[in-house]
Amino acid sequence: MLFFPHNQAYERRFPTCPQMPIVLDCEIIEDNVFDNGARRDTKRRCKIAVEAPYLIKKIIGVDVVFFIQQNFLDMKTRTLNIEATNESFATRVEIFEKCRYYAHPENPDWTCFDQTATLDIKNFFGIEHSMEKMGMKQYTQTTLKGKEIIEFFVNELKQEGITHVDRWVDDATVTSTTAGAATNTTPPEKPPLCRDNSILDADYIAKYLGQLTPLQESKLVQLRKRFEHGTSEHPEPDYQTLLRFLRARDFSIDKATGMLQESLQWRKEQRIDSILGEYKTPAVVEKYFPGGWHHHDKDGRPLYILRLGTMDVKGLLKSVGEDELLKLTLHICEEGLRLMKEATKLFGKPVWNWCLLVDLDGLSMRHLWRPGVKALLRIIETVEKNYPETMGRVLIVRAPRVFPVLWTIVSTFIDENTRSKFLFFGGPDCMHAEDGIEQYIDTDKIPSFLGGSCNPSIPTVVETIPAKLYTRCFLGACHCTLIHEGGLVPKHLYKSESIEETNGAIQAHDHHGLYKAVDLKPGQLFELLIRNTDPKSVLTWDFEVLKNDTLFAVFHTEKEIEQSGNDDFSSVFDGPDFKEGTSYKKIEQSVKCRPKEGVQGSHEMASTGTYVLQWMCPPSCDGPAQLMYFHEILSSANYKGSMTSLQSGFSSNSLQSR
């Protein structure tokens, strides 16, 4: 019998492989062979780069950690078991990961793979919750990478002409085995796929589910069998729902089962199945929430438009509360599920996710009000758990410079697969720019406030919107899409004054040293040097002036540059080799920042070289200046479109408190 050489492919990933750059080295410390070559146990010590924000690395004091990995290869049973445990910080954190490759029990030509992991954080410098989030994120990334890596090296073997290897046999039985193979060269018949001919026929799959491989279809049917006996309390999930949860868990039946069971229990506890009929939109939400369903994109996805830049986050939270905003979001998600089914019937093809367009025009530091961000993170977490694979595309338009600060905070909590669907369009003209939103939405469906010809109007009388009206708008027969412009919620509508107040979006004491303090004497400079090797990446900054006026500017040079020495009254550009406009350029003009002002901004680093953030206390000041600052570099891979036209954002305590 022959089998595909997945074990050979696996061995090629050591000591390093380009698909896993965080693995810096792997050293074999034990390697033993047993049972005449049938079993091989290998123990490696692996050096791993710490993938964490600068703050975390600073706290834990290391850039690399070590793991012990043990491989147990059994050629008789055709299994490869892999166990990994952390060596670094073992007294603070316990990580145990187990992977298994094995032959499919019904079809020996198939190689199966499963993976589990446990993470127990006992104590970790006071940032246990952050480490847990990072650990789960890293585990998800490595799970997806494992399959990619094996497929890469399998294809590499194919290119070298290796498409199979002889199955291991004991020397004592090699003759009889060979003889048996000579008389029986017919490969085993693959098991027939389980199929309900009245439902899962080819036409049903093509119309309602989309293209599936035979293995995916088989797993879908197997998952359906686990939920066959639905009840009035737990209705049997339809195939579209089952498929979404399978996709969310990379077609692992066990993982999809667990995720779906938890979601079904949550739906029961929260009465989600009744939300479309029972939910009553609060009057303040109807009048001031700037979002609504608006036709569909070019792929037939229902399109939801949210004018986040004009949303009064604080006003809505204080008027209706966090729970009510979450309930509103769930109502929108349930509407989306219904509209997807309608779109599938309308267009005669599977539509199993929707499109979200977020207009950020008007976004400022008031949107980074801490309770608002907290509510947003709770909403994201709930939607990720219970509505997986429903977001087909997210178009972020007219993103101002303050946006990267918000994105830095929020993106960590968004599933990586969902994050890959975000497209960003900086600048005011998101429609006609190269690779603009016209590629994704028909021009006659683009709202007029984005430069299109469609004019979303608002009825003069605020009333509950009938379901049929939503349907007509979605189908394109109605120009009234009911997208409000938002605006400030009057304070007399506030019901809660207990929500935590925060002057400014991010305070130093809230972030465990994320922000650094600088004191500057009159005439003194502070310069931060950032060496860039990733063209089109985005440099983002956020600082608050606590005392006295401060001048701020940003420079760029392609020349080699060194941090200045002890003379804090001289710039790195004061040397004879530097001349402004020739050897270096000011890419952000100097601005004067006054006490209690916060400044947020970003710059698209179009080229490599050194970028310099410069703060100076004017010589005319009657005393020292004081500020808190933070900066971060966001990878070019996260952005689409240009951010060069964005302007720096200012905030002040008076603006924040409104």
Automatic annotation (TrEMBL):
PROSITE patterns: CRAL_TRIO, PRELI_MSF1
Keywords, in A-Z order: Mitochondrion
Domain PRELI/MSF1: from-to ranges: 1-162
One family name in Pfam for this protein: CRAL_TRIO
Segments traversing the membrane: none
Residue intervals of the CRAL-TRIO domain: 281-458
SUPFAM superfamilies the record matches: CRAL/TRIO domain, CRAL/TRIO N-terminal domain, Supernatant protein factor (SPF), C-terminal domain
Gene3D superfamilies: CRAL-TRIO lipid binding domain (3.40.525.10), GOLD domain (2.60.120.680)
GO cellular component: mitochondrion
Position of the signal peptide: none
Cell location: Mitochondrion
InterPro entries, per database record: CRAL-TRIO_dom, CRAL-TRIO_dom_sf, CRAL/TRIO_N_dom, CRAL/TRIO_N_dom_sf, GOLD_dom_sf, PRELI/MSF1_dom, SEC14/CRAL-TRIO_domain
Protein name in UniProt: Protein real-time
